[in-house]
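quick one if you have a minute, typing this from the bus. theres a chain ive been looking at and ive put its sequence and its fold in token form underneath. please have a look and point out which stretches look like helix strand or loop to you. anything you notice is useful, everything is just below.

***
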Amino acid sequence: MNLTQVREQIPLLSNTLYFDNAGAGPPPASVYAEMQSFLNDWRDHGERWERWLPDIVESRSLFAKLIHAKTEQVACIPNVSSGLGAIASSLQFEQRQNVVVSELNFPTNVYLWHTLKEKGPLEEVRLLKAQDGTIPLSAYERAIDDKTAAVSVDFVSWVNGCRENIPEVTKLAHAHGALMLVDVFHAAGVLPINVGTLDVDVLLCGTYKWLMGPHGAAYLYTNPETLDQLQPSIVGWHGIRDSVIARVQADEPPFGRPFDLSHADPAGDATRFEWGTWAVISVEGAKAALEFTLKYPPEERWPIIQRLNERLVDGLRRKKRRVTSPSEKERLSGIVTFDMPEPARVAQRLLDEHVVVAPRVNGLRVSPHFYNTEEEVDRLLQKL
């Protein structure tokens, strides 16, 4: 991999030390160009629905390739939160009354389950507490039982970068007949992801972090073996079997005949969770970002990111900073967190010097990407 060529494609790097990819990744020039092309097309020609629809399908295919899935197993959604909501509204709680979640999850992946409990269909939210920055497998063993409807966890925690042992947790969930839902937003673009190996039932991911795309586009994978267990309470006009995209793929005019409004027939694949009209400009940017990602695949990125974070952690320890990310090899990710007094003030002072990190409670979060260099890590340590 030629990192000089990679860096030349990311304009921000010419004047900024960027270490906040867990917050939002800087767009490659190709992402900006694709979104600008859409704006130009819209400005000059107005809405070009039939031309844009195939790009939705293509973006699904690209994400499917990234996670080693099939196109029909992927839906294009606006964000992970709405995807989680769509899945949660599809679960059946009559016989299974609890959901297991982790306090290392992103807040949505806890709040929505509390809401379901407060509204009535769910009896219990089992929130697992971290011990030394991780959730022990034994905690999952104790929490998951035959009344568990779903286990919903983040592959990599936004809090401290802890990587979850998804295959083992999935085995526990499936042993009790529970569904396994995984948010991979802080893993995709860093770690290789294979849904066949993970064996999860649902996987969700946005594009504006490590995938370096825009806000407003995300993807939802569903395992075909468990899709029938997910019966949505709400279906929009893109989530039906006879959708406009289905018509275009069948070489039919998208509006050549009326929609059957006598009943709702959900699509037979993951697209049943595509409720409404896409933000096409975001999908165009996401498509370009996925193309960029696949050009430099995570199998090649992860060793680079790992080396950068090892260098960062070594330097922090020499400076007597307490690293709060897990240190076990199997728990490592692209995120490093460490104690820092007045983190917001420090982050602002760094930003004034064109260095971007993320202030968090009692510390800083640093998240290098494969385009960063060891020299940049050393400069960050020096400034700290």
Observations:
- The two ends are 30 Å apart (CA to CA).
- The CA atoms of residues 228 and 306 lie 39 Å apart.
